Amino acid sequence: MDGFWAGIIGVMVGSALTIVGQWLQHLWQTFDARERDKKRKSMLEHMLENPGRTGWRKMETLSSVIGATRDETAQLLIEIDARASETGNDAWAYIKNKPLPGNASRA
Question: What is the pTM of this model?
Answer without folding.
Answer: 0.71
